[in-house]
Structure formats: structure tokens, C-alpha cells
């Protein structure tokens, strides 16, 4: 939690999107993840912010990989984090030859094992998420994710919200109820629904209802995404 809290404080202090991006790169590098892709597929094409070599980014655009990238079609079809990259592509028998080639090309420039963090589910308006990669082999990757996965996923969601806040005109903030804020606050501190219920002397079903309604108000895909948005908007302070 200390690493996550430190990262959140750094994000708040960052005054522009470039500063957020630099701090995000620095944070993930500490865990061995130096190949970051923040990808947003819209009707106008793919918007990439990445640490991948420029030659790879140019080829990605030139080859039209955004139209067949399994990251958008499969990873962004779920809010669950998905292990991806060459170290894992044998697990996905449905991949087409061109998709496998794209994954191999990414591995050649350092993205061998990665995980996804979705911030926009695949649909008519496109899809979006993080592809957070490394040169780890499969076993080393699994060890890091077991030890730090929750911190890494939460940090990615918050970095996205901070980037969005600094680059997109924001709609007015929808107020949360006191109960919704309190449940989100304890969720931000790592408590599960039953633990929050015990602490607040509520029924578990009530906690889940407060969190679900907060998620809807915030337009979040998951509980973790709702926490990230609420922190970014100053509605909770973990």
C-alpha cells in the first residue's frame, strides 16, 4: 500500500500529461515493466502513448494492426486482467497468423510478457486499456504479478484517470452519497465487501449496493476503476 500511496501522491503533484507519463514509466520500471502501451481505440483510429520503440509504433500504424489487435477484441472485452505477450500467446489457440506475427514483433523489441488493464470495454465506441509489458519469462512474470498485481493494476487505472483529467474536458462531477464515499474509501485501502461491512456495521449486500451505485455514477468499469476516478476527482482521500 505504501508504494501505491506514494504513486498517487506523485500523480496528484504532476501538473501536465507529460509529467504523469514520465512518473508512470518510472513507477512501472521499478517492477521490471518497461514496455508500456496506453491504447485508446476510437472511431477515428488508435491513439497510442507508448514506451515501445518508435519504429515499432510506426509499423503498428502502417500495418493497420489496430484493426486486428487481439488486445482490443479480447482483452478489452473483460474487466479482468489478462496475461498476454509471446510468453502467453500459446494459451490462445484462436489467434490468427497475422495477430501472432504482431505479438512476435513486439517481443523482438522487449515486450515478451505483459498484462492488460481495461478502462473502456470493447463496443461501438471502441475500446481502451493498458498493455503493461516486460522482458520477463513466463515464470518470472507470474511471480511479480502474484506479489504486486493489485498495486500495479490500481496504479494503471489511476494513471489513466489522471491522464484523462489533464487531456480531456471533464463533465461536472456527480456527487456521491456519504455511504458510497465511505465504502469506496475502505475499498481503496484494500478491504473487501465483507470486511467493509464489518467495519461499518452494515450488511455485506448493502456495501455491495453502495459500491455498485457509486460505480454507475462514476461511469466506472470495476470497483477499482471507481476508486481511481473518485480519488482523481477528490471525492475520497485514501
Automatic annotation (TrEMBL):
Asked if the keyword RNA-binding belongs to this entry, the reply reads: no
State the superkingdom: Bacteria
Q: Which Gene3D superfamilies match?
A: Transcription factor LuxR-like, autoinducer-binding domain (3.30.450.80), Winged helix-like DNA-binding domain superfamily/Winged helix DNA-binding domain (1.10.10.10)
Q: Does the keyword Transcription regulation apply?
A: yes
CDD domains cross-referenced by the UniProt entry: LuxR_C_like (cd06170)
Keywords, alphabetical? DNA-binding, Transcription, Transcription regulation
What protein name is recorded for this chain?
A: Regulatory protein, luxR family
